[in-house]
Design a protein that fits this description.
By secondary structure, this protein is mostly helical. The chain contains 13 helices and no strands.
């Protein structure tokens, strides 16, 4: 019984969502510290801290939204909503994970601890109301991604470029808008009732914003690679364009649904774009 519930707790931690925390390694990569073992250990520690912090917030959110989730065609299968994980154990796991995140953050330094605490606080505020305010919900998503990017640079003690922050903000807003577009499409076809905040979003406006933010995000990334310390990184830009274009199409068709990370891990075009970016970036960093 306990073993099964602990297994459900791990599922509720949403390990697939940990892919978002790979942004932690951006500072390490663009600062060209790939041969620094100490920096790698620091970056991995920061990654673990933010995986723990993210999972803590997911568990808390699932407890808070359990009743609503039970009426949702997809979310009703979440462990807490389905009754496979007790709210008491979910909250206990959330507290433990938050403590782990803070302890690891403290080990990396005062600024790293501050960023972890800010991340947890923003996640808490999001769960308790900010996610229901149109526009603010996207701002919080962007803020959480920025904290990840800054935390990665702080952990390995490198300067974080304003271009990297700008690209992070644009990409996170793009991802948030794409998810809203997909959710609106699902509501339109009757696949789900959708969240209350969706009632304040207009499909045509969101559609234009998705395309606009994707375009601006690509231009910002292209400029960042040209003006950065390794201009040859511009060779990675076609893969960024491919990924953005594919994601726009998936959002328009409404197939992103409630779990866009599933698409990121299973869609062949997205996978090709990711592998292409990693391979080309590695080649550039090794040769130049």
């Amino acid at each position: 019984m306990i073993q099964a519930e602990l297994g459900s707790a791990f599922v509720a931690m949403r390990p697939r969502q940990w892919t978002k925390n790979l942004l932690i390694f951006a500072g390490l990569i663009f600062a060209r510290r790939l041969d620094d073992r100490t920096a790698w250990l620091q970056a991995v520690a920061a990654f673990i801290a933010y995986c723990a912090a993210s999972s803590a917030s997911y568990l808390l959110n699932d407890v808070r939204d359990a009743e609503h989730d039970r009426r949702h065609p997809a979310k009703r299968h979440r462990p807490v909503a389905a009754g496979r994980l007790s709210e008491r154990l979910a909250l206990a796991c959330a507290c433990l994970l938050a403590i782990v995140a803070c302890v690891v953050g403290a080990a990396l330094g005062a600024w790293s601890l501050t960023l972890v605490v800010a991340f947890l606080a923003l996640q808490l505020a999001y769960s308790f109301g900010l996610k229901r305010i149109v526009g603010v919900d996207l701002g919080v998503i962007a803020g959480l991604f920025v904290i990840r990017a800054v935390a990665g640079a702080v952990a390995v003690h490198v300067y974080i470029s304003g271009w990297l922050i700008a690209c992070t903000i644009l990409l996170s807003v793009f991802l948030g808008l794409s998810k809203r577009r997909a959710e609106l499409e699902q509501v339109r076809v009757g696949a789900t009732e959708g969240r209350t905040v969706l009632q304040r979003y207009r499909v045509d406006v969101v559609e234009r914003l998705v395309v606009t933010t994707a375009t601006v995000a690509f231009v910002a990334y292209f400029a960042y690679t040209l003006l950065g310390p390794t201009p040859w990184m511009v060779l990675t830009s076609p893969f960024v364009a491919l990924g953005l274009r594919r994601y726009v199409g998936l959002a328009h068709r409404g197939v992103l649904g409630e779990s866009p990370e599933e698409i990121l891990l299973t869609d062949p075009v997205i996978i090709v774009a990711v592998i292409g970016w990693v391979a080309s970036a590695a080649a550039v960093l090794l040769v130049t």
